[in-house]
## 1
Amino acid sequence: MLAFSIPLAGLAADADGHKAPAGPVILRVVGDIDKTNVDGEAHFDRRMLQQLPQHGVETTTPWTDSQDHYEGPLMRDLLAHLGVTDGRVNVLALNGYEAEIPVSDFYDYDVILALKRDSEAIPIREYGPLWVLYPFDHDAALLSEKMRFRAVWQVMKINVR
């Protein structure tokens, strides 16, 4: 498994500890979070997500034909940045699909919020721009139907409970 981290840099905090996005918002996190930046929510543009520590994983998925390299922040790092370390999240996709995921999954597995596949931004038509991606090749338990339903693509919103 290829993994790497990039230190959090350049993410200046406002009074609530979370900078407002400068570019188009691609992710909203709502609910039981400590850090907000827009009307009690945490909004992220692509650059903000890229400034979080990045993690890479080589994996196949049940929906793709090849092993690819995916990059993005670990879900546990994103949530910890917002003050979340336990509970559940509901992840909502652009097409209306929603999955409930226990935060413990993000500590049991190196689940990433994939921003890139093979060094390129993931287009909407190919599961992007954001994908809650489990490292399927690293544990056979992740190939269960239950776990596949938690791998939400076209992510637009996370509701923390």
## 2
Amino acid sequence: MDLHGGGGRRIKLSSTGGCEEDRLSSLPDDLLRRILRGLPSTADAAQTSLLSRRWVRLWVGIPEIWFPGPAIPGRVHAALAAYAAHDGAPIHGIHVTTLTAPAESTAAWLRLAAPRLSGELSVVDNAPLDDDAAETLGVIELPCFENATKIELRLGCPGIALPDSGVFAKLETLFLEYVRFHGPCELGEAVSSARCPSLRRLTVRSSQGVSSLAISSQSLVKVSLGCLKGLQQLMAVAPMVEHFHLSPWYRKAKLSTVNISAPRLEKLTWAGRFEPSFLQRAHLQELCTAFKVYGRDRSLNPHYLSLFRHFEAISLQLLLVYPANSVNSYEYLMDDITFLPDVKNLVLSFCSRAHAFGASAFHLLRLCAGIRGLKLKFLRYKSEFQEPPECPSGCTCDQQNGWKSEGIFLNRLGEAEIHGIKGVEHEVVFLEQLFRWATALEKMTITFDPLVAVSDNLCEEIASFSRPETCVEVYLYRNGRKVLFAPVI
């Protein structure tokens, strides 16, 4: 198959308009290949063979194949065939972006790539499909990449059949997203030490077709499982794992059995039901989880409290989620949190949808007044280019304002960071209180939302809340650039 996309007359390269001497082609091969690697794709590099006989096979010596897409699978296959015909041409990286490519055409070039790749494989399909449309694409039979070090597949939910034989001897990182698992080989078997003896990082998310997952690995250091539709049972024996992330399929989670044995586990990221029996032989030091500030269902709250009691002294990262509309018809759930472990560093991320957050933040700070470090992040739940939302008219989110007059002593807090504030009234009030509570604060860093126009008066007002011994840095965005506010003296 023609990789060039058409024929053409060969011309000579020169540095001047009329000179027939091909000075560019006289450069060393390695330098010429570096020039070719700067072109948009492998197809563009191959087209340089039209310029001179000197360039006919030069592009095949580039140790990387790249089709930023949307690539035509046939051209990827043609490029790999050219490499196969060029004895000794190594391939250290294959990066392909497609658009609803049929499974068989993708599988065909993957089979050609498997014996030659000795580095990274990345395949991204930019058109995630619903289940019915994905079925029409067929099933990709993944070959065994014996020498690949990293495999990243984001496939838009076509089927994928893992190889039932062979060893991914050098694979260190496996990332799978938007796939439907098919075939007799189960995911747990494929990532076991017998099949992937060097695997250190495993990520599987937004996928389906795995009801039971049993992982047995002597090499894994980090495991991340997110939104696995249909997952019911999870077992993991991973003596080297330090970070385990699990977030089941929200609202449809049917995870009934969990048993994780990870004696070196230090960081746990968890969302959903939790029982103390889920973890065996773990030495946890850092916890990341989420909590609904308002809601109608309190059934998950006892599980979160059980999760907190699994720790003694930790760094805690907590995502606080607010409703997208008025909170008037919801119950306030923060009072269910009556206990926190000895928290050294606290990170609170707010998906607040512009609701007032002071009461929930105060509640948590009161339970862990011995923190040394504090970070508050205000997240966007929609496009970062949209204007910040406004709290619905008549919302009662700011009526729980007893915290504005109560005091707590954060006398160990030495450094605090606030990211993404917009400068609205309830934020400014909270910042003023925080400066009062943190009597030993050495440094405060405040960064405003990039989409908000911030006045100098507001920055000066916030800076005035601090004690003389506290270093305060206020960052804002001017003309799209992040700048440090400098008051006019």
